Amino acid sequence: MWVDLAIKVGVCGLVLGGVLNFAGMQTWLERKQSALMQDRIGANRAYFTIPLPWWLGGGLINTILRKLGGLGILNALADVLKLLTKEDFIPARGDAFLHTLAPLLSVLFALLAFVAIPIGPPVQLWGREIPLQVADINAGLLFILALASIGIYGVILAGMVSGNNLATLGGLRAASQMLAYEIALGVSLIGIIIWAGSVDLAVIVQKQGALLGGWLPAWGVFVQPVGCLIFMTAALAETKRVPFDLPEGEPEIIGYFTEYSGMKFGLFFLTDFVEVVLVAALTATLFFGGWQVPYLTPTGFQFPWGPGPAVSHLAYVGLGLLSFTIKVLFFIWFFMLIRWTLPRFRYDQLMHLGWKVLFPLALLNLTVTALVVVGLHG
Amino acid sequence: MASLSERLLHQIRDAHQRRALTWWERTYLPAVAQGLWLTSVHFWRNLFLHIAHRFGAFKHLPASVTIQYPEQLRQTSPRLRTRHRLTQREDGTPRCVGCMMCETVCPAKCIYIVPGEHPDPNIEKVARSFDIDLGKCVYCGYCVEVCPEDAIRMDTQRHDIAATSRDGMWLDIVELLHPGSRRPGEPAKRYLQLELDDFRKMKDTLPPSPPTSGTPA
Questions:
Q1: Nearest by CB: A341 against B35, B63, B66
Q2: In a designed cystine with B105, which of A13, A110, A267, B146 is the match (CB 3.0 to 4.6 A)?
Q3: CB of B176 closer than 8 Å to CB of B137
Q4: Residues B153 and B55 in one domain
Q5: In a domain, B75, yes or no
Q6: What are phi and psi of B72, to 5 degrees?
Q7: Quick check: is B215 in a domain?
Q8: What interface predicted TM-score (ipTM) does this complex get?
Q9: Would you say residue B74 lies in a domain?
Q10: pLDDT (tens digit, 9 = 90+) per residue, B166-203?
Q11: Where are the domains of chain A?
């Protein structure tokens, strides 16, 4: 029993560490990627040195710190330091308890959603089978969708209890936006659920290891191209980032976290980044084969033109983890690219896209998928 | 047959009317793809160039348009009106003859001159003290245009003028004759009156001015 617990804690640590690091490094990615996209250099000044004598490696450590500062990585540290030392302000008309609760709710549900995502193939080690998934929930997809819906309560709460009309309006905008896009999100996923015949993410990923017509990996994006497009659009709206950042809109339309400062604001910011990681992980899991490497079977590569090199079990697991990480990183990069390319939607355009375009399109996709599946199997 | 003015009006109306978007354009997907293509091309190009610069390759292609300011300086045009300086005679004394033309013409009234006698009978007078309050200066360049002796110029290419107080915005005669000789944060010696020998000594003791604008690429 203790061994099982230790294993679970280990897997939890792996997932949580990965998610928080990816989320934290997104501040760096955001600065540097936007700089590269706009022909700038980006953050490259923040660094500190430690007064260590040379025999403790002081020179080397300080050189590394300067290099990291030159790459802008230490800015993330400076951000956290700034957020932690800022005044934690609660408006006089606000509710102190709920005002503190809101960012915690927001970040909690965003982080909880990761428990259902399989990050690698099950490991066979010391006669045990260890699933690389924090909780093997047989309704994992529904669990994630439910948590994503609850997560919005933090945002609405933040708007409502700030004692600020503009923040309340921001929270309401968030509520209606989430409503509009969560429906399209859910319906777009039913197609892949019908195809896989399960709402268990581990099963959906397993299913994507097959080949279509003997050469094309049976990834969700090839089975459900329209569903993938709708999902990615709706999921981007869920992250509340540009071009769907109407709940926030820091520069002019004032958002739900106007009355937040310090690390409470930082938690909302972190939630956004965690949600980007979540959406990237979900996109990779549902539509891009999860941890599956194309043509890799548990015993070795099986190319369409014949068997490739054999791999050991641990190498198979490692390749799976690597594949999942690369896919998640790619989608984080891709969502960042979208965020720095497209301008924000107007509010009526946002509602139009959600209710009149994505939702009917998702329904149509669902109908066609259902007909095809019934035609093939029944 | 419509009149000319009516036809012109119709033409203007037609030009103002937007072309209706086609069905494919209305999905916004082609425009989104175009935008993503453009920004990702910039991203990968600049990423490649930044890495290549580390290894010393493709140095002639810039990876960014950023000027890293304190280390790199912007290339300025020589005709840019920048901070003032006073020109010198060969012995280091100011060319200024204290005629008060610039002080009179200055619309901002930011020039303060104290003239003194010059031993040479061919030279009318000499400026013993010359102060400019840059906090008031509007950089119109009238002082340069009005000067009969070419004694004041605005060609130092210095434009990074900042101070933490109004007094810090003053330029005294030493700083005007030798731009860059005053250390940052050091207050100006307002209305400092110097003798001719002081100017001659200054020429030898003060270090040359540091560069204030970038070299042409």
A1: B35
A2: B146
A3: no
A4: no
A5: no
A6: -105, 145
A7: no
A8: 0.87
A9: no
A10: 888 999 999 999 988 888 778 888 888 998 888 888 88
A11: 90-373
